[in-house]
Write a structure and sequence with these properties.
By secondary structure, the chain is an alpha+beta fold. It has a single domain (4-104), classed as Nonspecific Lipid-transfer Protein, Chain A. The protein has helices at 4-18, 21-26, 67-75, 80-85, 94-97, 100-104, and strands at 28-35, 38-44, 50-53, 61-66, 89-91. The longest helix has 15 residues, at 4-18.
């Protein structure tokens, strides 16, 4: 199982470095509220992108999910819709939440 802190501290910053096109294709700031793990902001709007711990000043999409479900999603990004439909993943902007698979894959 993928680990939440490792995702935000290691995987996502490396992904931004390796795939700068995420900024031009996603164009949004995401705030991830991971219950029992913390809150992180992923800026895919302002080049070169950034990952920070804490709340966003102005998030375009806020994702709220329990740590166990989030870590399942990290392992299997296609679970996103199932988690959303069962109420285990909440998103303030559904259209932007659909971009999660690009971020996680």
């Amino acid at each position: 199982m993928a680990e939440t802190r490792e995702f935000f501290h290691d995987y996502m910053p490396k992904k931004l470095t390796d795939n700068p096109s995420l900024i031009t294709t996603v164009k949004a700031v995401f705030q991830f509220n991971i219950t029992d793990a913390g809150t992180w902001t992923v800026d895919l709007k302002t080049p070169p992108g950034a990952v920070t711990e804490g709340e966003a000043a102005a998030a375009d999409c806020v994702i709220t999910v329990a740590k166990a479900d989030w870590e399942k999603l990290l392992d299997t990004p296609s679970l996103g819709m199932q988690l959303f439909m069962t109420g285990k993943l909440k998103a303030s902007n559904i259209a932007l939440a659909m971009q999660l698979q690009k971020i996680l894959a």
